[in-house]
Design a protein that fits this description.
Blueprint: E1 34-36, E2 40-42, H1 44-73, H2 80-112
Antiparallel strand pairs: 1-2
The structure holds zinc ion.
Residues 17, 19, 28, 30, 42-43, 46 line the site of zinc ion.
Length: 113
């Protein structure tokens, strides 16, 4: 997919990183190089950062889903082995989430330079 330059910007100038269009970050002076979800153009470090944040969101979503499932099924005589497996998966997801958050911190530092 080819990144589209937003209407109204000067087509002759190098497109800038559009991170300020997300609610998370401020303006960025680096050139936009990577298309994020085909919607906005980001510099390399901000593209990495947003990818990590998306992944953290997805993993967090699955942890919450498993929490909900365990709450509904944990005490109602559900299959022990299955319960154990969900519990184990939940621990793994939480560990992955911690790891992603560490990566996000360093990606954010890098993006701020
Ligand atoms: Zn940027």
């Amino acid at each position: 997919m080819r990144p589209e330059v937003a209407a109204g910007t000067n087509p002759l100038s190098q497109p800038r990183c559009e991170i300020e269009k997300t609610p998370l970050e401020g303006e960025c002076q680096r050139p936009g190089e990577v298309s994020h979800k085909g919607m906005i153009l980001l510099c390399g470090p901000h593209a990495v950062l947003l990818q990590l944040e998306d992944r953290a969101q997805a993993v967090l979503g699955s942890v919450l889903q498993m929490d909900e499932w365990l709450q509904q099924n944990g005490s109602s005589g559900a299959d022990e082995e299955y319960l154990g497996r969900i519990g184990h998966e939940r621990e793994e997801a939480k560990a992955a989430l911690r790891h992603i958050r560490v990566q996000i911190r360093s990606a954010r530092k890098e993006a701020q330079q």
